[in-house]
């Protein structure tokens, strides 16, 4: 857990760099998270940790790169898109990144205090696959000729 504490301290440091004045920082975080002043103070003192969802909101609103906090080199961090219609021909680098992501998720599953989040530009197929009309709608949006999704 020491590594998590270091990452959390780096996040707090980055937040303070973005808004150095304590009063403005507290007010801004209250606005972003919809929390009371004392709840923000507890999080800034590390009495209570920000949840993953709260960190994501803060990062978005304050334009903080979570990759930079972790000091990930750009060549190690490359967003990739798994398109259900062309994922059979992925470049080798995508396979390696996918395997690394799976390995990290397996490690996280062993830690009862861990949280995992994701961002999607659309609803994940696993979530919508049981809803025929939603599947048809997304098929229409993606310009697909066939409205039948095979799983």
Give an overview of the whole structure.
With 151 residues, the chain is mainly α. It is 56% helix and 0% strand. The protein has eight helices and no strands. It starts with a helix and ends in a 10-residue tail after the last helix. The model is unreliable at 72-78, 80-85 and 145-151 (pLDDT under 50).
Q: How would you describe the shape?
A: extended
Q: What can be said about the biggest beta sheet?
A: none
Number of strands: 0
Ranges with pLDDT <50 over ≥5 residues? Answer: 72-78, 80-85, 145-151
Q: CA-to-CA gap between the ends?
A: 39 Å
**Strand percent estimate:** under 5%
Radius of gyration: 20 Å
Helix content: 55-70%
Helices and strands: which structural class? mainly alpha
Tally the helices. Answer: 8
Oligomeric status: single chain
What string, H for helix and E for strand, traces the elements in order?
A: HHHHHHHH
Topology at a glance:
Layout: H1 2-18, H2 22-33, H3 37-44, H4 52-62, H5 66-69, H6 92-109, H7 125-128, H8 132-141
Task: Name the descriptors.
151 residues, disordered C terminus, extended, mainly alpha, 0% strand
């Amino acid at each position: 857990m020491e590594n998590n504490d270091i990452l959390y301290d780096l996040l707090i440091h980055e937040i303070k760099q973005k808004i150095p004045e304590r009063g403005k920082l507290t007010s801004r975080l209250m606005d972003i998270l919809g929390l009371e002043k004392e709840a923000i103070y507890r999080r800034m003192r590390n009495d209570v940790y920000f949840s993953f969802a709260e960190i994501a909101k803060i990062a978005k609103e304050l334009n903080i790169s979570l990759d930079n906090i972790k000091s990930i080199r750009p060549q190690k961090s490359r967003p990739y898109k798994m398109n259900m219609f062309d994922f059979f021909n992925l470049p080798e680098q995508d396979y390696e990144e996918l395997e690394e992501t799976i390995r990290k998720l397996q490690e996280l599953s062993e830690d009862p205090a861990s949280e995992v989040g994701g961002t999607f530009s659309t609803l994940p197929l696993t979530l919508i696959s049981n809803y025929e009309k939603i599947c048809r709608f997304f098929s229409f949006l993606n310009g697909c000729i066939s409205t039948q999704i095979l799983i």
